[in-house]
Amino acid sequence: MKKTKNDIKLVFAIGNPEEEYANTRHNVGIYFTKKIIEKLNICITYKKKLTCFISKYLSEEKEEIIFAISNSYMNNSGSCLLQIMNYYKIKVEEILIVHDDMVLECSEILIKFNGSPHGHNGLKDIIEKIKTKKFYKMRIGIGKPKYQSENINYVLNRFQLDEQKKIDEKITSILNKLQESKFLNIIKNLE
User: Fold this and answer.
1) Rounded CA separation 84/34 (Å)
2) Which of 55, 154, 183, 190, by CA, is between 20 and 30 Å from 97?
């Protein structure tokens, strides 16, 4: 049976935990997910044993979607995800990882099932820990620097004003659609 995005039970945002990283390019997945949680008007609580923040959304069809924001460093995302999967009994193909992506232009969003981590260390760690690439990824474009040697500083810095405006406009556009449709339908139509 073919999997669809309507099978998503966990939306998992990865980034770095400390305040200094809060609005950096590397944390755009967390930024995006927090905006969705705010829009859905659901509570978020810290679960120490899972090393993450958790919100639960109940759809009109009484289907529960868990939103989890990792409180682990990007390069240790897999351990956090594995704990959540085991605790809530979530299958790997029911997961949507929300993360930054340097391959895509700033504010471009692409959802893909399976596939390469494209050099993303958080995804590499996840794949190593859960032993598969067969999960959904929401790739949020952050662009890339002119020289590859600048990659680390680039992802750990904040967006330029014009870039932040693009990201915010894209997120606002998606969130406005949440008023009209269920979350999963919005995700389904992003491709």
Assistant:
1) 18
2) 154
Compute CA 150 distance to the chain's CA centroid, rounded to the nearest angstrom.
Answer: 23
DSSP 3-state of 142: coil
Give me the CATH code for the 5-188 domain, please. 3.40.50.1470
* Candidate list 26, 99, 118, 120, residue with the active-site label: 26
Q: pLDDT by residue for the chain (191 residues), tens digit each?
A: 455 555 889 999 999 999 999 999 999 999 999 999 998 889 999 999 999 999 999 877 788 899 999 999 999 999 999 999 999 999 999 999 999 999 999 999 998 899 888 889 999 999 999 999 999 999 999 999 999 999 999 999 999 999 999 999 998 888 887 655 566 565 655 54
26 classed as catalytic: yes
